[in-house]
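Methods — Computational structure assignment.
A single polypeptide chain was analysed. Its primary sequence is given first, followed by the predicted tertiary structure written as structure tokens.
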Amino acid sequence: MPSAAEQLAANFNFGNFAKAKELRQRIMFTLGALIVTRVGTYIPMPGIDPAGLARFIGQQGGGLLDIFNTLAGGAVSRMAIFALGIMPYISASIIMQLFTTVFPELEALKKEGAAGQKVINQYTRYGTVGLAAVQAFAIAVGLEHGQGIVLDPGWFFRISAVITLTGGTMLLMWLGEQITSRGVGNGISLIIFAGIVARFPQILGEGLEGARTGALNPLVLIFFLVFAVILVGVIVFMERAQRRLLVQYPKRQQGNRMFGGESSHLPLKLNVSGVIPPIFASSILLMPMTVAQFNAQNLPDWATSVIQLISRGQPLYLFLYGAMIIFFAFFYTSIVFNPEETAENLKKYGGFIPGIRPGKKTAEYIDYVLTRCTVIGSIYLAVVCLIPEFMWQNNISFALGGTSILIVVSVTMDTVAQIQSHLIAQQYEGLIKKAKLRGARR
């Protein structure tokens, strides 16, 4: 079965694209919004000394700060207005999704459809403001304790930092929602995608410079570049992998004509959750650690010991990161795919899985197959996302690691699929208009 990219390449011609006015508008809006997100990563937060900040970032030597800086599109190293990135919104979304499974009131709102989801989204925005404000205040205090970073320490700087960083996060959240509704692709994922891709040239330049000066073995750099290409192929294969369940539809007679009797497939992806588990796991693990890294000099001894235990490259960090990815893979799959609802829809339209009774037994069978697919998918995600840890130990940036490549490839595939669906819809609309005109002429 050809992928969306292959279908788009086979069916693409500039004539169809030129006729798809709405698609062009959506693409231009998406590009414009992404440009705004990139510009924001270069606007510095007021009250920061660039030279002092550069010294502080250089002393950190990568680690968790490098990961968070990559996901924020380089805004952390410049302490720009978008330094918090979109992570507070993602964290608030995680909390709200967990709450919907705990509190019956929120679960009832979720079942109300679009109206209930609108209320939940509003609660998520409120939570984003709170989380962003707390994290911005902690970063501001940490910057004040850094030598020569803040020009005029005090409450005025702290309040301005909270307002600036929180406002930046809310602007990113709004842009992400606008891209999703008025552009092409998932807005939040595209913002993270743009930040990672924007750092690729810089990282490659640093790698080549390291190879030239001898700081990095050229063979190691070549190996990881080749490995990255192979990894892209593996990710594409796994993201397209499906377990297809055969679905039969019974024959029915209406008058003298026989209808139905055909068979179809119910596709179950190995990785239903996509890139959400790595992003969720990163946001939970990285944000507290990054805030602690900014305040390392003021932490008690026990907190310093805990940070050392779960610092990047340590066994406990690897375990927690992998376990969170696996957990969120199952958790998010259970949210986006409901076997009982799928089984009910099959029964409603007369479909059934051969050898399985319709209704509850079909739901149990779909859940059985989906669980085993998710086991494979979650292990694949964990393995791919833990690869950067070995690359980091060889002085390769996180931006060339498995997590970043996974996000870039998955978001690209999803966006291309949406473009393909818009082009197909435009072609169908053209055929319908032609049929109506022919009917009117007759």
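Note: The mean pLDDT is 78.
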